[in-house]
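Table S5 (text form). Sequence records supplied for joint modeling of the two-component complex.
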Amino acid sequence: MSEITFIAGGATAAQGFSATGEHMGIRRNRTRRDVALIVSEVPANAACVYTQNLVKGAPILVTQKHVENGIAQAVICNSGNANTCNANGIEIAEGMCSLVEQYIGVKAEDVIVASTGVIGQPMTLEPFQKNFGKLADSLEDTPAGGTRAAEAIMTTDTVSKEVAVRFPLGGKTCKLGGIAKGSGMIAPNMATMLCFLTTDAAISPVALKRALTTVTADTFNMLSVDGDTSTNDMVSIMANGMAGNTPIEACMGTDYEAFVAALYKVCEKLCAIMAKDGEGATKLLVCEVTGAKSTATAKLVAKAVIKSTLLKAAIFGADANWGRVLCAIGYAGADVDVSKVDVNFRSNRGLIPVCRGGAGVAFSEETAKEILMDDEITVQVALNSGSATAKAWGCDLTYDYVKINGDYRT
Amino acid sequence: MSEITFIAGGATAAQGFSATGEHMGIRRNRTRRDVALIVSEVPANAACVYTQNLVKGAPILVTQKHVENGIAQAVICNSGNANTCNANGIEIAEGMCSLVEQYIGVKAEDVIVASTGVIGQPMTLEPFQKNFGKLADSLEDTPAGGTRAAEAIMTTDTVSKEVAVRFPLGGKTCKLGGIAKGSGMIAPNMATMLCFLTTDAAISPVALKRALTTVTADTFNMLSVDGDTSTNDMVSIMANGMAGNTPIEACMGTDYEAFVAALYKVCEKLCAIMAKDGEGATKLLVCEVTGAKSTATAKLVAKAVIKSTLLKAAIFGADANWGRVLCAIGYAGADVDVSKVDVNFRSNRGLIPVCRGGAGVAFSEETAKEILMDDEITVQVALNSGSATAKAWGCDLTYDYVKINGDYRT
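The corresponding structure-token record, covering 820 residues in total, follows.
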């Protein structure tokens, strides 16, 4: 784990990947990029996980078909319109892939397509057709290209999100990075918001899919901004093998574990960045659960705590209302002995115990307030009933969340 | 059903019930009543449903014991402190019941005790002991007494909540009424926030329990303000038989059905009042689901829609963002064919279709806005896959919700 190093960049950090993002006219705002493109020099092994929402965006259905064979070479994604609940949705999504083939030379069936924005808004291919040349021309294998792609997939995000790492694998140095977007309708279930990962590691489609599923379960699926699971969630990864390591074929062994550790590192970091940039959020809210009977129990508890609307509002107000933590644990549907529960609040400014054995302990409200004024708050929950642990990421609930979502569309 | 008539009053509407509420010093705010008392002239058959939260307030545990034999004669309830996660909680709750015995003559074991307010705050019996005489002296079988009780159980509620009906039963006229409180940490599960019902109908404890459970499942359990299931939820009902009807013994037949219908009417009305007075709410949000394959499916869908944070914020902003309705249906975990779903928005100002067969239909944004400016909004969801229906009650998400919960405690 200690050999994994964060490096600059995101989608273009790994060898052989180019990217860009331009304004093509999907959004009315002319200064905002709204289409992202990521391309691998060579066909890559690929894996995706998708939203479990029964209502699925058309791009999800097209991507599922394209990635079925475990191969992809490009990602095309627009923001400003989710291409969901539209009668011509499939046609549009396939049209976007065909344009990639026409301008870049990557086969349409090897393109991962995604859309994010308002659901149920009419959409046409026209802006793509008119401006694809500009997009193709600006494609480059530089950090700047990756950043443009990261910017182009933003909706209500206030910052673009890129993370990358370098790690050794079978004697070679591999890189793995990605870009992601939040920031509302975020409560991933088996999949997540949009995240496009790239790596130059050589790894088989089967091992890649297993690694992505495993890591997603512990990272993006443990993230919630508002409890609403989107219709367009997707995480994709392309592994083009250009690092030259001996290909990972099995879902076990040193190399596979090293790859999973690097993937976890990138996804965990993206999770924290996304949660902190949740719609209207001023604070990152993390819940660390220890001492659970099972991982399932630990996850239920961690997720219930960071999803509690009441706790989220209290954290916004820097109010050490630990009763709301206990309450959330109680309705989490988890196997918990509440009389054994300990709770601490922690931030960069210190740690304060507020509950021991399910009952309150005397604490200084002043100290608690000071600790909770920080912009990264961790709620530590010790269940004292086993050894399983879990971590979940969320954010506070603020006036701005209401403002953003009271008139997002109009 | 048509013979059920709404009448004035609440807890004291039925024959033989007295009530009151006074400020006793649990709350710092001296102008607010904080203890409610309801007493039946004679021992009554009684039933309760409770929160399913694993963390349970001490009063819940004491009441469960007291009502086990199906008999109760009084309710004592304080606001300002939930008496939950306190080491001496049981002692306090039992002490409250003993004071009722001492001052009113009702046996402590026949007292239903409840508390609502902040979780995990230290609490003593002292204010009760010092002021119980004042409470006992003000007890009266008038509408004013009932209203004082309704006021005394309020926390962040902005209005007190009382409902009563008159209905014929076996040739006699019965009355059934009650008081309730919301207005945050409201997402009842098998039980609900606090609601104390009284009736002069004669009905066995078994039939009473069945009726209460049945009606609660379709009313209070279909209510959500913020998705947080409280630790202190309880609905109680006392039936003192003073109307003189032939006692209802069985959980079937004309009389039982008539009783359930009256109970439903009162609970449904209280639900709507509670939802509309949800913390910070400016609008009542109702979801009516029709055409479901099963009642379970209809309920999952109705509840997911009124709980969606994103839809709640859109309703606050009078934004006809129907894609958020579809999204919530999709993640409800229900057996739904999304390609068959129709959605309308309805209010006293009109009705507007926004989605047919899972896809958007053209509509006037202006008309939609006008309809959504009303303070009672209904989302009609037709699943077109069966004949089961359900209804759920919620409210919009506003700046004030954040304000109230950002510093509720301090």
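Note: The CA atoms of residues 184 and 279 of chain A lie 5 Å apart.
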